[in-house]
Structure prediction request, 425 residues.
Amino acid sequence: MDICIVGAGYVGLSTAVGFAEHGHRSVCVDINQKRIEDINSGVCPIFEPGVEEALRRSISKELLKATLDLKGALETSEVVFITVPTPCDDSGKMDTKFIDKASKDIAKYISSYKVVVVKSTVIPGTTESVVMKNLEAAGKKHGVDFGLCMNPEFLREGHALEDFLKPDRIVIGSADIRAGDVLEKLYEGFNAPMLRTDIKTAEMIKYASNSFLATKITFANEIGNICKLLGIDVYKVMGGVGMDKRINPHFLRAGCGFGGSCFPKDVSALLNKGREAGHEPRLLDTVLKVNADQRKLMVRHLRSKMDLKGKRIAVLGLAFNPDTDDVRESAAIDTVQGLIEHGADVSVYDPKAMDNFRKLFPGITYAKSAKDALKGADACIIATDWDEFKKLESKDFDSMKNKVILEGRKTLDKSKVKSFEGVCW
Ligand code: UGA
Prediction:
């Protein structure tokens, strides 16, 4: 099938290369000229494992190209995916400006029946109130000129392609059977259960999933904080808890709080939508508050051990997750901010995320390696569980002034590093 993908970020690109692996041809449309040039020359503009290799494979089979020309891309496509960002505005509500612009642009250029699919995460009601409305306002008739679907993505940054190719489920919300059938055909060959719903239900499945996962992590963190005071290892506890099929072992890793571009913004957007609809979502509100506290915990622990003023503190790991260069809502931000506020001299290292972090904190020391960051440090905090840090051994910490090691993600291997402490274990 021929597909047009509007917005070539990590979701759009992973979708394009993922469909190419199934033999479908995609044209990615973006407003960023440099991004278009990079994609067409086989350079992946985002750091996402496996995507660059898949991108090159897709280009060589002529199954993927990128362009600024939405009109041309639409002409040759049967299905149009909208994969633009949906950030939160300052009040925590979802900002629809990119969805609004993308759907207005699509509406301008549709000249024959297209299935328009919203893949961006949007608050229930948005696909109909923004996308359908814009298409109809441009004189296009639903069912004649276009069909409309909502097809949420469940892609983790750092595992986006893997998650796309091996989904737990495919959710297709459609405003009409014909559009849903076209999308179902596109996913033929994927080995996953297919759930057909109406549009609002599909939108809500995404928010409920992310909110539940954020709650699950927060629960593990809360248990972890209690465990630490009682001298119990929360990882052993959650190992036992997760053996219950009704709970499962995933997303129970306690640590220094969840971050990233999805959980914080999605929980916040659902919280606001609930309030707007007349319900006070107390659980979601608490999840965000507990998580905000959890992200400050590493500095609090360190302060209970030493006065941070004038101390050199090494922070290893700046990205919100390993295998990504994304630092949005990363626990390292709260940690570095707290360290600076208490007068510490901060030295940081991350295998991929230093450039992005530098934009937020230009004044701290950026080390060339973990070992370099540790030299002369009075303490070390590990905030991201990169594989590189899992390999660290006791001798790698020998150059520290004091071997105070606090980890936020259960990264270090006990058989390799003698003495360290977890943030909540
Ligand atoms: C999340 C969801 O997992 C995806 O299914 C969803 O599609 C995506 O949001 C989205 O809405 O686009 P993502 O935020 O990229 O994916 O990454 P996760 O692997 O879910 O990690 C989120 C945060 O939770 C990270 O800070 C991670 O360290 C933290 N986490 C995760 C924990 O603290 N403990 C865990 O057990 C798991």
User: Anything to note?
Assistant: The two ends are 51 Å apart (CA to CA).
